[in-house]
UniProtKB/TrEMBL annotation:
The lineage of its organism: Eukaryota, Metazoa, Chordata, Craniata, Vertebrata. The gene is Ncam1. SUPFAM superfamilies: Immunoglobulin. This is Neural cell adhesion molecule 1. PANTHER family: CONTACTIN 5, NEURAL CELL ADHESION MOLECULE 1-LIKE ISOFORM X1. The keyword Protein biosynthesis does not apply. It is found in: Membrane. Keywords: Disulfide bond, Glycoprotein, Immunoglobulin domain, Membrane, Signal, Transmembrane, Transmembrane helix. GO terms for cellular component: axon; neuronal cell body; plasma membrane. It comes from Phodopus sungorus.
């Protein structure tokens, strides 16, 4: 009997009474669980006896992940929860692995991984790129075990991981700036300076700059280096999650370059400045010469020199015709030197204006003048 009802052998072929009167149940089901009673009778005596046998059917676990792929974004303080639903008898216990390694909470204050009471849910806090993995939930009881996989895909905002400042010499054949970035999806890298965007094509139109990119690395090569190439270069890594930028600096060392108005006009007693603008890296030492003699000197007491980081000013107050003529500005640094000749010219009185036409009126006349052909080297005041 099963649960008080007779076991009908002909009706359910899964039940067989063996030659030793054992009851065999084939293809056992959870519904077969319960109390079975076997009875023995001696009809001649009218005696009867029985024994109850309790049958418990254990069911192997079944487990299913609610999502086989879970997406998250790194470094945003996000938490993500992986869930598996399990069934079986006895109730299965749950455990988890990450890329084949068991996940265990080693310390009480370990708040990276948090399990629900029955361990069917695994919460990962402060998700970062290292959390990307294949997670497996394992359900286990006396009857066996089963597992289910969940792939955690972690996307990451780009992060510039490598830039390096560079130093080059003017007219050097080439120099290369390198920018490396991490991120998922793989970021694209673009370049710009403080004043312009640099084409992401293989070459700029003039061939002076060449951009090459591969995976997470991009390089910017500048050819035939000019001193104007010096400055800040910014690389920007971008993907669908966000972007990151970082600066690097190209230092170009070059010999001094001088400029300024080479002809300066004045007259005796009128103070004037001769300006020698200097462009150089490293900084240059500037000297003034007159007829091969270093200024200022005892022979030229009417001369003073003032220097700034970008220019040198020679202040001259001519007191005779000898103070007019050539002055030499020379700048020197460890790369080289450059000289520029300036001429201090004695200004002259302007030439006479010429009358172009006269229009008389009843009591007045309008006279039109042409400007004088020679100004004498200084602006006409009136």
């Amino acid at each position: 009997k099963h649960k008080g009802r007779d076991v009908i052998l002909k009706k359910d072929v899964r039940f067989i009474v063996l030659s030793n009167n054992y009851l065999q149940i084939r293809g056992i089901k959870k519904t077969d669980e319960g109390t079975y009673r076997c009875e023995g009778r001696i009809l001649a005596r009218g005696e009867i006896n029985f024994k109850d046998i309790q049958v418990i059917v254990n069911v192997p676990p079944t487990v299913q992940a609610r999502q086989s792929i879970v997406n998250a974004t790194a470094n945003l303080g996000q938490s993500v929860t992986l869930v598996c639903d399990a069934d079986g008898f006895p109730e299965p216990s749950m455990s988890w692995t990450k890329d084949g390694e068991p996940i265990e909470i080693e310390e009480e204050d370990d708040d990276k991984h948090i399990f629900s009471d029955d361990s069917s849910e695994l919460t990962i806090r402060n998700v970062d790129k290292n959390d990307e993995a294949e997670y497996v939930c394992i359900a286990e009881n006396k009857a066996g075990e089963q597992d289910a996989s969940i792939h955690l895909k972690v996307f990451a905002k780009p992060k510039i991981t490598y830039v390096e400042n560079q130093t080059a010499m003017e007219l050097e054949e080439q120099v290369t700036l390198t920018c490396e970035a991490s991120g998922d999806p793989i970021p694209s890298i673009t370049w710009r300076t403080s004043t312009r965007n640099i084409s992401s094509e293989e070459k700029t139109l003039d061939g002076h700059m060449v951009v090459r990119s591969h995976a997470r690395v991009s390089s910017l090569t500048l050819k035939s280096i000019q001193y104007t190439d010096a400055g800040e270069y910014i690389c920007t890594a971008s993907n669908t999650i966000g972007q990151d930028s970082q600066s690097m600096y190209l230092e170009v060392q070059y010999a001094p370059k001088l400029q300024g108005p080479v002809a300066v006009y004045t007259w005796e007693g009128n103070q004037v400045n001769i300006t020698c603008e200097v462009f150089a890296y490293p900084s240059a030492t500037i000297s003034w010469f007159r007829d091969g003699q270093l200024l200022p000197s005892s022979n030229y007491s009417n001369i003073k020199i003032y220097n700034t980081p970008s220019a040198s000013y020679l202040e001259v107050t001519p007191d005779s015709e000898n103070d007019f003529g050539n002055y030499n500005c020379t700048a020197v640094n460890r790369i080289g030197q450059e000289s520029l000749e300036f001429i201090l010219v004695q200004a002259d009185t302007p030439s006479s204006p010429s009358i172009d036409r006269v229009e008389p009126y009843s009591s007045t006349a309008q006279v039109q003048f042409d400007e004088p052909e020679a100004t004498g080297g200084v602006p006409i005041l009136k």
